[in-house]
Amino acid sequence: MKLAFSALGVPDLPVPEVLRLASAHGYHGVELRADGPDEPVRPRGPGRPGPGPAERADLAARSSAAGVEVLGLAASTEVAAPGADEAVIGAIHALTAQAAALGAPFLRVLPGGLPGTPGAEDAVVRRLTAVAPHAAGLGVRVLLETHGDYGTGAAVARVLDRVGHPGAGAVWDVRRTWLDGEQPHASCAALAPHLGYVRVGDFASAEDRAPLALGAGVLPLTECVEVLSRRGWEGWLCWTYEGPRPATDTAPGAAGTVPSVPEPLPRLLGAGRDHLARLLNESA
Protein backbone atom coordinates (compact mmCIF):
# COMPACT_ATOMS: atom_id res chain seq x y z
CA MET A 1 0.00 0.00 0.00
CA LYS A 2 1.04 3.57 -0.64
CA LEU A 3 0.86 6.34 1.96
CA ALA A 4 -0.57 9.83 1.55
CA PHE A 5 -1.93 12.63 3.68
CA SER A 6 -4.70 15.10 3.00
CA ALA A 7 -3.95 18.79 2.61
CA LEU A 8 -7.15 19.42 4.58
CA GLY A 9 -4.84 19.28 7.60
CA VAL A 10 -2.75 22.22 6.37
CA PRO A 11 -5.42 24.49 4.84
CA ASP A 12 -3.25 27.62 4.68
CA LEU A 13 -0.16 25.98 3.21
CA PRO A 14 0.72 26.57 -0.47
CA VAL A 15 0.68 23.41 -2.57
CA PRO A 16 4.47 23.45 -3.23
CA GLU A 17 5.03 23.39 0.54
CA VAL A 18 2.54 20.52 0.92
CA LEU A 19 4.51 18.57 -1.68
CA ARG A 20 7.77 19.38 0.11
CA LEU A 21 6.37 18.10 3.41
CA ALA A 22 5.22 14.87 1.78
CA SER A 23 8.60 14.27 0.20
CA ALA A 24 10.52 15.11 3.38
CA HIS A 25 8.48 12.71 5.51
CA GLY A 26 8.36 9.76 3.12
CA TYR A 27 4.79 9.97 1.84
CA HIS A 28 4.07 8.79 -1.68
CA GLY A 29 1.20 11.18 -2.34
CA VAL A 30 -1.11 13.96 -1.21
CA GLU A 31 -4.82 14.59 -1.46
CA LEU A 32 -5.61 18.20 -2.36
CA ARG A 33 -8.79 20.10 -1.58
CA ALA A 34 -10.41 21.21 -4.80
CA ASP A 35 -13.23 23.66 -4.20
CA GLY A 36 -12.46 25.96 -1.29
CA PRO A 37 -12.54 29.70 -2.04
CA ASP A 38 -8.75 30.03 -2.04
CA GLU A 39 -7.70 26.65 -3.39
CA PRO A 40 -5.17 26.65 -6.23
CA VAL A 41 -6.92 23.81 -8.03
CA ARG A 42 -10.49 25.08 -7.71
CA PRO A 43 -12.63 24.77 -10.87
CA ARG A 44 -13.77 27.71 -12.91
CA GLY A 45 -17.08 29.28 -11.99
CA PRO A 46 -18.85 32.59 -11.36
CA GLY A 47 -16.28 34.97 -9.92
CA ARG A 48 -13.60 32.26 -9.99
CA PRO A 49 -11.27 32.35 -13.00
CA GLY A 50 -9.65 29.09 -11.89
CA PRO A 51 -6.10 28.08 -12.76
CA GLY A 52 -5.09 28.18 -16.38
CA PRO A 53 -3.16 25.51 -18.28
CA ALA A 54 0.19 27.04 -17.30
CA GLU A 55 -0.68 26.94 -13.58
CA ARG A 56 -1.89 23.36 -13.80
CA ALA A 57 1.21 22.34 -15.72
CA ASP A 58 3.41 24.01 -13.11
CA LEU A 59 1.68 22.15 -10.29
CA ALA A 60 2.00 18.84 -12.13
CA ALA A 61 5.71 19.53 -12.76
CA ARG A 62 6.29 20.38 -9.09
CA SER A 63 4.58 17.16 -8.05
CA SER A 64 6.76 15.12 -10.41
CA ALA A 65 9.94 16.87 -9.27
CA ALA A 66 9.11 16.15 -5.62
CA GLY A 67 8.44 12.50 -6.39
CA VAL A 68 4.98 12.90 -4.85
CA GLU A 69 1.75 11.96 -6.60
CA VAL A 70 -1.45 13.96 -6.41
CA LEU A 71 -3.59 11.08 -5.24
CA GLY A 72 -6.83 12.91 -5.78
CA LEU A 73 -8.93 15.99 -5.25
CA ALA A 74 -11.26 16.20 -2.26
CA ALA A 75 -14.38 18.15 -3.17
CA SER A 76 -17.23 19.14 -0.88
CA THR A 77 -19.70 18.70 -3.75
CA GLU A 78 -22.80 16.86 -2.52
CA VAL A 79 -24.18 14.44 -5.07
CA ALA A 80 -27.66 14.49 -3.49
CA ALA A 81 -27.79 18.30 -3.28
CA PRO A 82 -31.26 19.78 -3.89
CA GLY A 83 -31.99 21.21 -7.29
CA ALA A 84 -31.53 20.20 -10.89
CA ASP A 85 -29.32 17.30 -11.85
CA GLU A 86 -27.52 19.46 -14.40
CA ALA A 87 -25.98 21.76 -11.77
CA VAL A 88 -24.45 18.88 -9.81
CA ILE A 89 -23.35 17.00 -12.91
CA GLY A 90 -21.74 20.15 -14.33
CA ALA A 91 -19.85 20.80 -11.10
CA ILE A 92 -18.52 17.24 -11.02
CA HIS A 93 -17.51 17.41 -14.69
CA ALA A 94 -15.48 20.58 -13.97
CA LEU A 95 -13.77 18.98 -10.99
CA THR A 96 -13.06 15.82 -12.97
CA ALA A 97 -11.35 17.89 -15.65
CA GLN A 98 -9.16 19.50 -12.97
CA ALA A 99 -8.19 16.11 -11.58
CA ALA A 100 -7.31 14.85 -15.05
CA ALA A 101 -5.19 17.94 -15.78
CA LEU A 102 -3.16 17.25 -12.63
CA GLY A 103 -2.81 13.55 -13.35
CA ALA A 104 -4.88 12.71 -10.26
CA PRO A 105 -6.74 9.42 -10.61
CA PHE A 106 -9.50 10.20 -8.10
CA LEU A 107 -12.11 12.83 -7.25
CA ARG A 108 -13.74 12.48 -3.82
CA VAL A 109 -17.36 13.68 -3.50
CA LEU A 110 -19.88 13.49 -0.66
CA PRO A 111 -23.37 11.97 -0.70
CA GLY A 112 -24.97 15.01 0.98
CA GLY A 113 -28.65 15.78 0.86
CA LEU A 114 -31.00 16.18 3.80
CA PRO A 115 -31.28 13.12 6.05
CA GLY A 116 -34.20 10.91 5.05
CA THR A 117 -35.13 12.98 1.99
CA PRO A 118 -37.33 10.86 -0.31
CA GLY A 119 -35.59 10.14 -3.59
CA ALA A 120 -32.13 11.21 -2.36
CA GLU A 121 -30.55 7.85 -3.11
CA ASP A 122 -32.14 7.76 -6.55
CA ALA A 123 -30.61 11.19 -7.22
CA VAL A 124 -27.15 9.96 -6.13
CA VAL A 125 -27.43 6.93 -8.41
CA ARG A 126 -28.74 8.96 -11.32
CA ARG A 127 -26.04 11.63 -11.08
CA LEU A 128 -23.15 9.22 -10.57
CA THR A 129 -24.40 7.19 -13.51
CA ALA A 130 -24.28 10.36 -15.61
CA VAL A 131 -20.75 11.42 -14.60
CA ALA A 132 -19.01 8.05 -14.41
CA PRO A 133 -18.46 7.47 -18.17
CA HIS A 134 -17.18 11.03 -18.67
CA ALA A 135 -14.77 10.66 -15.74
CA ALA A 136 -13.54 7.28 -16.94
CA GLY A 137 -12.84 8.75 -20.35
CA LEU A 138 -10.48 11.23 -18.66
CA GLY A 139 -8.78 8.54 -16.57
CA VAL A 140 -10.48 9.62 -13.32
CA ARG A 141 -12.80 7.79 -10.92
CA VAL A 142 -15.45 9.72 -8.99
CA LEU A 143 -15.42 8.30 -5.47
CA LEU A 144 -18.36 8.49 -3.07
CA GLU A 145 -17.17 8.72 0.53
CA THR A 146 -18.71 6.89 3.48
CA HIS A 147 -20.35 9.95 5.00
CA GLY A 148 -23.58 11.21 6.52
CA ASP A 149 -26.60 9.05 5.71
CA TYR A 150 -24.22 6.77 3.79
CA GLY A 151 -21.72 6.31 6.59
CA THR A 152 -21.31 2.55 6.22
CA GLY A 153 -19.59 0.55 3.53
CA ALA A 154 -22.85 -1.33 3.02
CA ALA A 155 -24.75 1.88 2.24
CA VAL A 156 -22.16 3.18 -0.24
CA ALA A 157 -21.81 -0.24 -1.87
CA ARG A 158 -25.59 -0.41 -2.34
CA VAL A 159 -25.46 2.85 -4.31
CA LEU A 160 -22.45 1.84 -6.39
CA ASP A 161 -23.91 -1.56 -7.19
CA ARG A 162 -26.85 0.28 -8.72
CA VAL A 163 -24.55 2.60 -10.71
CA GLY A 164 -22.53 -0.34 -12.04
CA HIS A 165 -19.78 1.63 -13.79
CA PRO A 166 -16.02 1.56 -13.04
CA GLY A 167 -15.88 5.34 -13.34
CA ALA A 168 -17.66 5.51 -9.97
CA GLY A 169 -16.12 4.08 -6.81
CA ALA A 170 -15.74 4.54 -3.07
CA VAL A 171 -13.60 6.20 -0.42
CA TRP A 172 -13.63 4.23 2.81
CA ASP A 173 -13.32 6.70 5.69
CA VAL A 174 -12.62 4.43 8.65
CA ARG A 175 -13.62 7.16 11.10
CA ARG A 176 -17.14 7.28 9.71
CA THR A 177 -17.73 3.55 9.44
CA TRP A 178 -16.51 3.09 13.04
CA LEU A 179 -18.88 5.79 14.26
CA ASP A 180 -21.74 4.03 12.48
CA GLY A 181 -20.89 0.75 14.21
CA GLU A 182 -19.69 -1.17 11.16
CA GLN A 183 -16.76 -3.52 11.77
CA PRO A 184 -13.68 -3.19 9.53
CA HIS A 185 -14.09 -6.64 8.00
CA ALA A 186 -17.68 -5.77 7.03
CA SER A 187 -16.71 -2.38 5.58
CA CYS A 188 -13.89 -3.92 3.59
CA ALA A 189 -16.02 -6.77 2.25
CA ALA A 190 -18.76 -4.37 1.11
CA LEU A 191 -16.44 -1.82 -0.48
CA ALA A 192 -13.74 -4.08 -1.95
CA PRO A 193 -15.26 -4.20 -5.47
CA HIS A 194 -15.46 -0.40 -5.56
CA LEU A 195 -12.55 0.81 -3.45
CA GLY A 196 -10.50 3.76 -4.67
CA TYR A 197 -8.62 4.64 -1.48
CA VAL A 198 -8.91 4.50 2.30
CA ARG A 199 -8.95 7.49 4.62
CA VAL A 200 -7.49 6.86 8.07
CA GLY A 201 -7.40 8.99 11.18
CA ASP A 202 -7.76 8.77 14.95
CA PHE A 203 -9.63 10.39 17.82
CA ALA A 204 -10.29 9.74 21.51
CA SER A 205 -13.96 8.67 21.41
CA ALA A 206 -17.25 9.08 19.60
CA GLU A 207 -17.89 12.12 21.79
CA ASP A 208 -14.41 13.64 21.45
CA ARG A 209 -13.44 13.65 17.78
CA ALA A 210 -10.62 16.17 17.89
CA PRO A 211 -7.92 14.70 15.65
CA LEU A 212 -5.11 12.81 17.34
CA ALA A 213 -1.81 11.39 16.17
CA LEU A 214 -2.27 8.01 14.51
CA GLY A 215 -2.38 5.27 17.12
CA ALA A 216 -3.20 7.63 19.97
CA GLY A 217 -6.97 7.08 19.86
CA VAL A 218 -9.60 4.35 19.62
CA LEU A 219 -9.92 3.76 15.87
CA PRO A 220 -9.28 0.13 14.78
CA LEU A 221 -6.48 1.04 12.37
CA THR A 222 -4.58 -2.20 12.93
CA GLU A 223 -7.62 -4.28 12.00
CA CYS A 224 -8.36 -2.10 8.98
CA VAL A 225 -4.85 -2.59 7.60
CA GLU A 226 -5.01 -6.31 8.34
CA VAL A 227 -8.26 -6.89 6.47
CA LEU A 228 -6.97 -4.91 3.49
CA SER A 229 -3.72 -6.89 3.50
CA ARG A 230 -5.56 -10.21 3.64
CA ARG A 231 -7.42 -9.19 0.50
CA GLY A 232 -4.15 -8.30 -1.23
CA TRP A 233 -5.24 -4.69 -1.68
CA GLU A 234 -2.40 -2.45 -2.84
CA GLY A 235 -4.04 0.95 -2.96
CA TRP A 236 -3.67 4.15 -0.93
CA LEU A 237 -3.94 4.87 2.77
CA CYS A 238 -4.56 8.60 3.15
CA TRP A 239 -4.23 10.19 6.60
CA THR A 240 -6.98 12.77 7.01
CA TYR A 241 -6.19 15.07 9.91
CA GLU A 242 -8.27 18.22 9.93
CA GLY A 243 -5.96 20.32 12.04
CA PRO A 244 -6.22 23.19 14.50
CA ARG A 245 -9.34 25.29 14.27
CA PRO A 246 -9.02 29.08 14.33
CA ALA A 247 -9.31 30.55 17.82
CA THR A 248 -12.69 32.07 16.91
CA ASP A 249 -14.08 28.54 16.43
CA THR A 250 -13.06 27.42 19.93
CA ALA A 251 -15.82 27.84 22.46
CA PRO A 252 -16.07 26.83 26.13
CA GLY A 253 -17.62 23.43 26.79
CA ALA A 254 -20.51 22.63 29.08
CA ALA A 255 -18.30 22.80 32.16
CA GLY A 256 -16.69 26.05 31.08
CA THR A 257 -13.57 24.36 29.74
CA VAL A 258 -12.01 25.27 26.42
CA PRO A 259 -11.50 22.31 24.05
CA SER A 260 -7.88 21.42 23.42
CA VAL A 261 -6.35 22.60 20.16
CA PRO A 262 -5.00 19.74 18.02
CA GLU A 263 -1.29 19.57 17.33
CA PRO A 264 -0.38 21.07 13.92
CA LEU A 265 -0.16 18.31 11.33
CA PRO A 266 3.40 19.07 10.08
CA ARG A 267 4.77 18.18 13.53
CA LEU A 268 3.08 14.76 13.36
CA LEU A 269 3.80 13.67 9.80
CA GLY A 270 7.00 11.74 10.50
CA ALA A 271 5.54 9.74 13.38
CA GLY A 272 2.33 9.18 11.42
CA ARG A 273 4.22 7.76 8.48
CA ASP A 274 6.21 5.49 10.82
CA HIS A 275 3.02 4.26 12.48
CA LEU A 276 1.39 3.34 9.17
CA ALA A 277 4.57 1.67 7.95
CA ARG A 278 4.68 -0.38 11.15
CA LEU A 279 1.06 -1.50 10.68
CA LEU A 280 1.86 -2.54 7.12
CA ASN A 281 4.92 -4.51 8.19
CA GLU A 282 3.01 -6.27 10.96
CA SER A 283 0.19 -7.23 8.62
CA ALA A 284 2.48 -8.59 5.91
Percent of residues in helices: 25-40%
Uncertain residue segments:
42-49, 245-258
Residues in β-strands, percent: 15-25%
Largest sheet: 8 strands, parallel, barrel
Category by helix and strand content: alpha/beta
> How many strands in all?
8
What is the global morphology? Answer: globular
- Give the ordered list of helices and strands: EHEHEHEHEHEHHEHEH
Radius of gyration: 18 Å
Average pLDDT, rounded to a whole number, is 87
Measured distance between first and last alpha carbons:
11 Å
User: Helical region count?
Assistant: 9
Give me the side-by-side strand order of the main sheet.
Answer: 1-2-3-4-5-6-7-8
Q: How is the topology of this model organized?
A:
Elements: E1 2-6, H1 15-24, E2 29-33, H2 53-66, E3 69-78, H3 85-101, E4 106-110, H4 120-137, E5 141-145, H5 153-163, E6 168-173, H6 174-179, H7 184-191, E7 195-200, H8 221-230, E8 236-239, H9 269-283
Parallel strand pairs: 1-2, 1-8, 2-3, 3-4, 4-5, 5-6, 6-7, 7-8
Task: Describe the protein.
- The protein is α/β, with parallel strands linked by helices and 284 residues long.
- Helices cover 38% and strands 16% of the residues.
- The chain has 9 helices and 8 strands.
- It has helices at 15-24, 53-66, 85-101, 120-137, 153-163, 174-179, 184-191, 221-230, 269-283; strands at 2-6, 29-33, 69-78, 106-110, 141-145, 168-173, 195-200, 236-239.
- Helix 8 (221-230) links the parallel strand 7 (195-200) and strand 8 (236-239).
- Residues 42-49 and 245-258 have low confidence and may be disordered.
